């Protein structure tokens, strides 16, 4: 891990009414190794405010490694080494005095498989709030997060009675989304959030992405190119740890600039 210093996240970005197409996250020459195995190779790209960016590519290409690097979720991996910068509001999140807990509060994450806690629905959502010391108006914060995750009407009568495990797979994923949203992140990372869901639950998550990107930045890893085309504004294509192409989604899918991108999206490999 790099031993850099001097860190400040600065002021929270304006919310939806003031969203502009400007980068909130910048990745510069990012390389990453797991021991001797290099997983990312000098990736450089930016993530605009209030836009959705899809990250696509074949299995093992570095998609999850890239987005887990955006909020330091890779920190606990043994023998990890990172070079380059990840700038959030212009500040490098990998400097020595950066607080990973604060980074992950501001840059939230939803994982591939729903991972509710063995607690009530209410306590699942309240957990992150308590950890981050946001204990005032707890009921209102929990309700607001469940509304934003389009789950409130389905669970409002069972908040303290039912466990998160009692919900369907799609509901569990939206519960995890509510848990992430409760602490008001500015960026939401989604690592294949629909891969374990049926088409109906997938459609609900995709609708939520369209709503949420009005107020925050979304980065979604997906193996489903049709999903990337539906939900994203920009798309990044990775291959063997290399960022091959990063472009507006319509351009990348209809007029790719690299023959490797065209070969992948037309199904010649993957």
Which key phrases capture this entry?
Rossmann fold, alpha/beta, single chain, 10 strands, 270 residues
What proportion strand? Answer: 15-25%
Mean pLDDT: 90
Domain count, please report it.
1
Please describe the biggest sheet, giving its number of strands, its sense, and whether it closes into a barrel: 6 strands, mixed
The CATH homologous superfamily: P-loop containing nucleotide triphosphate hydrolases
Poorly predicted sequence stretches spanning 5 or more consecutive residues: 1-6, 13-18
What is the correct CATH architecture?
3-Layer(aba) Sandwich
What fold name stands as the CATH topology?
Answer: Rossmann fold
Give a description of the structure.
The structure is a single chain. The protein is an alpha/beta fold. The longest helix is centred in the C-terminal third of the chain and has 14 residues, at 199-212. It has ten helices and ten strands. Residues 1-6 and 13-18 have low confidence and may be disordered. Strand 1 and strand 2 form a beta hairpin. The radius of gyration is 18 Å and the shape is globular. The strands form two sheets. It has a six-stranded mixed sheet with strand order 6-7-8-3-9-10, sandwiched between helices. Strands 2-1-4-5 form a four-stranded antiparallel sheet, with helices on one face. The protein has one domain (22-265): 3-Layer(aba) Sandwich (Rossmann fold), CATH 3.40.50.300. Helix 3 (121-131) packs parallel to helix 6 (169-181) and helix 4 (138-148) crosses helix 6.
């Amino acid at each position: 891990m790099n031993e850099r210093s001097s860190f400040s996240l600065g002021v929270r970005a304006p919310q939806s009414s003031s969203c502009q197409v400007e980068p909130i996250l910048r990745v510069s020459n990012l390389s990453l190794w797991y021991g001797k195995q290099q997983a990312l190779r000098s990736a450089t790209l930016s993530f605009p405010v209030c836009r959705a960016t899809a990250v696509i590519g074949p299995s093992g290409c570095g998609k999850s490694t890239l987005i887990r690097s955006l909020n330091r979720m890779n920190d606990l991996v043994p023998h990890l080494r990172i070079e380059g910068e990840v700038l959030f509001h212009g500040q490098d999140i990998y400097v020595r005095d950066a607080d990973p807990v604060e980074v992950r509060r501001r840059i939230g994450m939803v994982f591939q498989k729903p991972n509710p806690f063995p607690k009530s629905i209410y306590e699942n959502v309240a957990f992150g709030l308590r950890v981050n010391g946001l204990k005032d108006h707890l009921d209102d914060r929990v309700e607001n997060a469940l509304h934003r995750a389009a789950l409130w009407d389905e669970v409002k009568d069972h908040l303290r009675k039912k466990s998160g495990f009692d919900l369907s797979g799609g509901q569990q994923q939206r519960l995890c989304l509510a848990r992430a949203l409760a602490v008001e992140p500015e960026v939401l990372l989604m690592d294949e959030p629909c891969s374990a869901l049926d088409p109906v639950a997938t459609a609900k998550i995709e609708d939520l992405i369209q709503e949420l990107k009005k107020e925050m930045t979304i980065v979604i890893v997906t193996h489903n190119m049709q999903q990337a085309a539906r939900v994203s504004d920009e798309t990044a294509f990775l291959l063997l740890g290399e960022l091959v192409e990063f472009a507006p989604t319509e351009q990348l899918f209809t007029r790719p600039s690299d023959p490797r991108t065209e070969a992948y999206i037309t199904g010649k490999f993957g």
